[in-house]
Write a structure and sequence with these properties.
The protein has nine helices and no strands. The longest helix is centred in the C-terminal third of the chain and has 37 residues. The relative contact order is 0.17.
């Protein structure tokens, strides 16, 4: 038997809890307006007035990091939730369908997986305009194949069990078969995949913003703050530290949380 609460799970809960807390606080309070410029106080060092200093436009870095953290978390959660739901539905449909329909659905997911995320973001940005929405849509599409393949493999494995074969033989309706027989044994592994994927989604959103395809100025995002800070990396290197550290904590937290959940439920599907 594996330990119920591993170090990974506890560390993941603590780190993601800090990120969630910071994001919730930013909804109601930030020390300054993260978009307000003060050119007289450009590149201020950390002080009692500005705990993390100011950027090249005199904007408070702490306020911008708090806003960016909230956007990164909400974008990651939204894109992974939508992508996982669509992927799970495709995987279940493929598992319960005939051979031709199954092949068609899986070749569709293969086509999605082969399409570069950045190119998808470029196309969506051209159609919808640059911002958080095209980034979420591109990341959502990127997440579909992994969830559909995982769901398909687990559903095929579950269908080989006697109680599900018995339910099929009794002509149990498809909705009842999915909700009460197929999904319950898959939930723990899907939860592990979903939790780990949030970190990947946050990294993708930051990468798109770093390239100028995501959130646009004057709004803040972790990737865009890193992109702006690289222009001053030799003269003001501390500019990149806050956004980089927060991004690292987010990725580490969700990866540890996913690993901890996997350890927690591992003994059930080892």
């Amino acid at each position: 038997m594996r330990k119920r609460f591993s170090f990974s799970l506890i560390a993941g809960i603590v780190l993601t809890g800090l990120i969630v807390l910071l994001s919730l606080i930013s909804v109601f309070y930030t020390p300054y307006d993260g978009e307000a410029m003060d050119l007289m106080n450009r590149f201020s060092l950390p002080s009692a007035e500005h705990l993390l200093g100011t950027d090249h436009f005199g904007r408070d870095i702490l306020s911008r990091v708090m806003d960016a953290c909230r956007r990164a978390l909400s974008g990651g959660l939204l894109s992974v939730t939508l992508g996982s739901l669509l992927g799970i539905m495709l995987g279940l449909a493929a598992s319960l369908s005939g051979r031709k329909t199954r092949e068609l659905l899986m070749r569709f997911t293969d086509a999605l997986a082969a399409f570069p995320t950045i190119l998808m973001a470029l196309m969506l940005a051209a159609a919808l305009g640059r911002g958080l929405l095209p980034s979420v849509a591109a990341i959502c599409i990127y997440m579909i194949p992994s969830f559909s393949r995982l769901t398909l493999s687990m559903a095929d494995e579950a269908r080989s069990r006697l109680y599900i074969k018995a339910a099929v033989s009794y002509n149990v309706p498809a909705r009842r078969l999915i909700l009460f027989h197929l999904l319950p044994p898959l939930l723990s592994r899907l939860l592990t995949q979903l939790t780990s994927s949030i970190g990947s989604a946050v990294l993708l959103e930051s990468s798109l913003s770093f390239l100028g395809l995501g959130i646009q100025p004057p709004s803040s995002s972790l990737g865009m703050m890193l992109s702006e800070a690289r222009n001053y990396i030799l003269t003001h290197p501390y500019q990149a530290v806050p956004s980089g550290v927060v991004l690292m904590i987010m990725l580490l937290g969700f990866n540890l949380l996913g690993d901890g959940i996997n350890n927690m439920f591992g003994d059930r599907h080892a």
